Amino acid sequence: MSSRWIAYLYLLLAMLGAGSTVVVSKLVSASLPPFTATAIRFGMALPLFLLLMGWRRAEWPRLCRHDWIMLILQAGAGSVGYTVLLLAGVRLSTAASASVMMGTLPAVSSLLAWLLFRESMHWRQGLALLLCSVGAVMVSLRSGAALSFGSAGELAGNGLILLAVACEALFILLNRRLHQPLPPLALSCYLCALGLLLALPAAALEWRGNWQVSAAALLGLAYYAAVPTVLGFVLWYAGAARVAASEAALFTAVLPVSALVFAAALLQEEIRRAQLAGMACVLAALLLQFLPAMRRSVPPAATGAGQAE
């Protein structure tokens, strides 16, 4: 098997793991409050990252004050904010709706880059944002004699999930503001440790002595820590190292689809027509944004140019 196809397999597995987090979040949120679940997740993942650092004999980069501030903001937004909001959102809404919302990440990233950092927005990004907005509205629609919005709780849940996506987009944008690019393993370890420190105080306020935590929730958190968090990191960067960054980004389209399939298969959630229509809008937006990268990633048949070494 060529290096390119191995990379595709790694990236596909990483995104399948990421898609499963929506289902896991639904199971965990039924037993644990969001900050407590977030703290437990990072508490389980951090020793695994430290073992990887030791196994790889990786060095700990020395950071300036600016980069420490950026890392704290990243951990607050992408590590804690994303996980807490996703857990709170899926508790009120459905995993199927959350699956569609997850696919809006590239469009939301473009919007925040334009609003916060005055980065230019291409017409494709603007149209993709419009399609994602339509998709996000569609997941809240109920079918019947006339289309209507779902319950107030479901609408609130969808709003929290969209805020979680915005936190993840902010995480991506803040990473570009680091003065010193960090090795992926060290960066993940720093963010995991900072996420744990930021989540612990709020988790302490949530503490109740009479909690009855289900075995499914604890197993879900262990899975969340080991597979999407740690193994997902290893698979994603192993695959991304073998292909161009624009080509690796194409595989983010797998995330919302896999999450929707997991929601239907494991949670037996009914997939409404409006949710399928929303998914179609989101996938069209992803295709629109990544179309130039798809064209660049196809190697000429005669020379085989473009294959990563």
TrEMBL record:
<feature type="transmembrane region" description="Helical">
    <location>
        <begin position="155"/>
        <end position="173"/>
    </location>
</feature>
<comment type="similarity">
    <text>Belongs to the EamA transporter family.</text>
</comment>
<feature type="transmembrane region" description="Helical">
    <location>
        <begin position="129"/>
        <end position="149"/>
    </location>
</feature>
<feature type="transmembrane region" description="Helical">
    <location>
        <begin position="248"/>
        <end position="267"/>
    </location>
</feature>
<keyword id="KW-1133">Transmembrane helix</keyword>
<dbReference type="InterPro" id="IPR037185">
    <property type="entry name" value="EmrE-like"/>
</dbReference>
<dbReference type="GO" id="GO:0016020">
    <property type="term" value="C:membrane"/>
</dbReference>
<feature type="transmembrane region" description="Helical">
    <location>
        <begin position="211"/>
        <end position="236"/>
    </location>
</feature>
<feature type="domain" description="EamA">
    <location>
        <begin position="6"/>
        <end position="140"/>
    </location>
</feature>
<feature type="transmembrane region" description="Helical">
    <location>
        <begin position="185"/>
        <end position="205"/>
    </location>
</feature>
<dbReference type="InterPro" id="IPR000620">
    <property type="entry name" value="EamA_dom"/>
</dbReference>
<feature type="transmembrane region" description="Helical">
    <location>
        <begin position="273"/>
        <end position="291"/>
    </location>
</feature>
<feature type="transmembrane region" description="Helical">
    <location>
        <begin position="35"/>
        <end position="56"/>
    </location>
</feature>
<protein>
    <submittedName>
        <fullName>DMT family transporter</fullName>
    </submittedName>
</protein>
<feature type="transmembrane region" description="Helical">
    <location>
        <begin position="68"/>
        <end position="90"/>
    </location>
</feature>
<feature type="domain" description="EamA">
    <location>
        <begin position="157"/>
        <end position="288"/>
    </location>
</feature>
<feature type="transmembrane region" description="Helical">
    <location>
        <begin position="96"/>
        <end position="117"/>
    </location>
</feature>
<dbReference type="InterPro" id="IPR050638">
    <property type="entry name" value="AA-Vitamin_Transporters"/>
</dbReference>
<keyword id="KW-0472">Membrane</keyword>
<keyword id="KW-0812">Transmembrane</keyword>
<dbReference type="Pfam" id="PF00892">
    <property type="entry name" value="EamA"/>
</dbReference>
